[in-house]
User: Fold this.
Amino acid sequence: MTTDHRPEEPRDAPRELQTDLSPVALGVLGLIGGFVLYHFFGGALIVTLLGVDYETAGAGALLLTQAASQTLFILLPAIFAARYAYHNPSVALRVALPDWTETGLFAVGLLALVPALHGYLSLQEIAFERLAEGHATIREVKAVFDEIDFAVMETMSKLLGGESVVDRALIILAVAFVPAVCEEALFRGFIQRTFEIKWKKPVAALVTAIFFGLYHFNPYALVPLVALGWYLGYAAYRTGSLIAPMALHFLNNMISIVLFFIFGEEEVFLGASEQPASGGEILPPTVAFLLVFFIVVWIIQRRGESQT
Assistant:
């Protein structure tokens, strides 16, 4: 008589998704591995190819090296980990075509979510400024956050600084397309899928989103990044395909790129929004966009229930 020591799967986990390893430990190892490989080995690759003073390199060389680093140290490890851990890695990575109507609804939701998150960032900035005025500790924390934010903005400005047709094409490839594919393969593919073996899908999506937010090293944008990560995770398990969150991630990145080209570095990405004159000016449109977002999510949810 043999005993199956595999962890008990929740009712909504597919039977094809089986592993002899602890799913939580496997997911955490994936997070640690992705962090170490990309931030350390990826950084070493950039320094090796472009030199210690890599910021003086041309934008094209930096973009191509960045894309190569993400492919080598995020995408490929996620694929290899899924192949090693699971009997059916294509199921683990959700290799399937999504329902395109549902994916379109998710895109509409994203178009409402992005301005709502920028509105939240503006309100957060106002609150942070006011708290810093009366608390020395908060002023010190804010000073550290400002330095991190400035460094990230400088890097992104360097990456998005090209003006030729070739440079713009490389920007779309390295800043919009490659991160969408690589990060979704790791987070919504291998990591979230692994957590789903142990936890319910919404919980797995939320935990993955928290790590997704922390992974980007942007303290001001932590909450918006977690919210965006959860939405991408929701799209992944609702559509049953990794293509949907990849497409949404690409759309989000493209919005940031277009805003940068139109308005400059203040709109590069979440966390760099300019402070409004008052909270009263930004609150109504933020609430309106949130309302539209929740209506779209409700429609997606009802649509899914009607098909079951």
Observations:
- The chain has one domain: 23-306.
- The first helix runs from residue 23 to 50.
